[in-house]
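User: Show me a protein chain along with its predicted structure.
Assistant: Here is one chain, sequence first, then structure tokens.
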Amino acid sequence: MNRLRVVGGVMLLALAVTPTAALAQWAQFRGANAGDVGDNPALPETWSETENVVWTIDVPGLAWSSPVVWDDHIFITSAISAGDEPAPIPGLYDPGDDNGSRRSTQHHRWVVYDIDFDTGAIRWAREVHSAAPTIARHIKNSFASETPVTDGRRVYVYFGTAGVVGALNMSGETVWLTELGAYETTGGFGSAASPTLHGDRLYVVNDNVRQSFMVALDKNNGEEIWRVERQERGQNWATPFVWENEVRTEIVTAGTQGVRSYDLDGTLLWEIHGMSGLTVPTPFAKHGLLYISSGYPGGGLRPVYVVKPGASGDISLWSQDDMRTGLSSGFPGTRASSEDVAWAYPLLGTYNTSALVYGDHYYTLLDRGFLVAHDARTGEEVYSRKRLEIGNGFTASPWAYNDKIFLLSEDGETFVVKAGPEFEILHKNPLNEMTLATPAIVGGSLILRTQSKLYRIAEEGQP
């Protein structure tokens, strides 16, 4: 195999590298199929800091945005401080009187990188914004947690903590930059909801304590096409999802006050009330159904909703009294359904991880390291909580290929689990560094980001 190792953008060893053949694309957070990669025997099953590593580079600053890939371009973002910043702390914990919120007076640079897929060399790095952050972030968050999106012509980036959204071409030139404003969030936790691209429009959701909104921008020039105010007062980190179903195309947004779906002109189509105190998981579609969840720890309601196409109006399953009184008053703890909701559970949702549908199964990766499986179409339980390992927390969302589920912990360990009705841990792949970002899987490789590094991981012997 032609192998290459890069540290800090400098090649330490290089042999002839064959061109990467037949690359697919990974253009957005979780890819085009919400983590279902499909079968590819070239994809790796085991790895470590040295095993099956094609290259690794150091990435300056602190950011939890995921990489996106188009052909041989890997795009990542970072927020680089001029001074020292508190290091992120993994796990679910009580952060004290300040709720874990941290402010910075240091000058920051928000930067976009284009990295060569084959070599790991940095093609270009472009500064999009430069200032001291005006809002706080949670110590476990970063000032650059939104994942970019690309259409192969441009890469579109949003930095909620800087209040800017912009487009760069494939040569790194800034095409446009639009100011949306930086807004304080619940508890000073910061922002993380990524932009979404559909047709000629870029959609951005910013839920905050001042005035929450969703905006549609012309992707060619950054001009605002429409804006809707949202009845949210706080913070949600769920990326908006464009659902192309058999009835219509709609924009689905998850929030603390409820799930709302809009048409492409920003008109409300339907809503579900009854979410947890904070909302992180991103909605997605599979088998003609829409999957939505939230699960702030300790909440009386941590729901999963599976919605059918064509809903309208308020399709909430549970009343305000149910949501107020919770389980203590007999709140339903089993599966529910309605004309518009194929199935739902009140206590299945997760805090940080988005769920995965792979094959016929809906997999829930609970933040404290349990895996649960249900029938994706009916919601019937396939197996109950299965422990991965004591002590591991999980923020990155799961992905799957070759009949295996991959579960990346905050400690940088990826648990490889057999897909299907029988739970079995096959491997554990360590990288020994904190990891919150969901990887990109493309071109027979994993592009995986840890706190300080970016890895390209591929099976030994593959080009």
